[in-house]
Amino acid sequence: MEENSRRKFLQQAGMATLASVTPLAAEPERTKELFIHHVFFYLKNKNNAQDEAKLVEGLKKLSKVPTIQFAHIGTPAATSRDVIVKDYAISWMCFFKNIIEEEIYQTDPIHLEFIENYSHLWERVVVYDSLGPKKIS
To answer: How is residue 135 annotated by DSSP?
Structure first.
């Protein structure tokens, strides 16, 4: 009886270790789709060039988060159609390999420091997250 309990314990410990070492293997569907994170910042001081420059400075630092594959900092384009929204100051769009990489980004110290050091600049943030198509091989 004791040998059976020991064997069961070792099997369970091995499975727990495997799951903690390879969390991506436990959730294969979450690793397959490109993840796009698009953020629109609305500054407290609208049209304030210094605040815009400060936010862009922070976003450039934020782009150093290792899980980001590509990052883009933008401002509203000079286009004019009824469906175009141009009331934001700065947009931030970044691409991740998958949702797990984006979740890691959310708790990365660089991201947390960005929020702490620059959130006083904005009154509102709007986020659009989307999944890309499954990879075609």
So the answer is: P
Q: What is the CA radius of gyration of the chain?
A: 21
Whole-angstrom distance, CA of residue 120 vs CA of residue 116: 8
CB contact at 8 A, 35 and 97 = yes
Q: Tell me the pLDDT tens digit for each residue of 101-136.
A: 999 999 999 999 999 999 999 999 999 999 987 555
Higher pLDDT, 1 or 50: 50
Kind and range of the H or E run holding 13: helix 2-21
Global pTM value? 0.75
* Burial class of residue 24, CB neighbours in 10 A (0-12, 13-18, 19+): exposed
Distance from C-alpha of 124 to C-alpha of 122, rounded to nearest angstrom: 6
Per the CB < 8 A criterion, the answer to whether 93 and 38 are in contact is yes
DSSP class of residue 29 equals: G
Assign 31 a pLDDT band (cuts: 50, 70, 90): confident
The rounded distance, in Å, linking the Cα atoms of 111 and 58 is 10
